[in-house]
Amino acid sequence: MLTVDFQRFRVAPGDRILDMGCGAGRHAFELYRRGAHVVAFDQDADELAGVEKMFGAMRLAGEVPEDAAAETVRGDALELPFPDDHFDAIIASEVLEHIPDDMRAMRELLRVLRPGGRLAATVPSWLPERVCWALSEDYHTAPGGHVRIYTRAELEAKLKSTGFTVGGHHHAHGLHAPYWWIKCAVGVENDGNPLAKAYHRLLVWDIMKRPLATRVAEAVLNPVIGKSVVVYGTKPVKTGTSETPAEETADAV
């Protein structure tokens, strides 16, 4: 289940791309399939161990181009262990809402991104997230949980303040918001609730089969109750340099 739209955020073979806060690795795996040189970065060692195993399995199964590369790195988003201007692109998906000092994390993303490089930042959308917080305190007070609810305007303003040029956005996962509302209403850890189980089966079926009916429904629901909002941006090219932004930047505007 991808949140970033790879028609907007185009990836070329050999691009050096950071998946910051990769979690279970869903975007890192897609980047690897597309031939990128991927760094899957996270603080959770257990998550990274699973990502590392999947990278190996993908290589053995022949799912990735010969020249693609992937590695996992554990560390702190506030002190990224990479040199300045190192990456061609960065994905930060569903991670900034977990970080108390989010603007420091954004400054680190700007630092390690090359001039002209692209960023895709995704966070929970304001309305679906506000409903979840209202229904369940456990949803956002658990250790490592969400510490803020972004509006798109706030996310864009913080990225601009950090130094990014922002252009283009969309919402995703409109079918998923009701599932989380159900979970929050019956108990986030109550996986045995019949309604939650039934809706989860629907989501799994949708992910596996992608039928026309659910694709249409999601397209209609995304602008209204899409669970995530995705904002695209670039690191400006320094005045007086010969670097030019990648052509893909235009697709994100």
From TrEMBL:
The keyword Nucleotide-binding does not apply. Residues 18-120 form the Methyltransferase type domain. CDD domains: AdoMet_MTases. GO terms for biological process: methylation. Keywords: Methyltransferase, Transferase. Pfam families: Methyltransf_11 (PF08241). It is an enzyme of class 2 (transferase). GO terms for molecular function: methyltransferase activity. The keyword GTP-binding does not apply. InterPro entries: Methyltransf_11 (IPR013216), SAM-dependent_MTases_sf (IPR029063). Its EC number is 2.1.1.-. PANTHER family: 2-METHOXY-6-POLYPRENYL-1,4-BENZOQUINOL METHYLASE, MITOCHONDRIAL, METHYLTRANSFERASE. This is Class I SAM-dependent methyltransferase. It comes from Actinomadura sediminis.
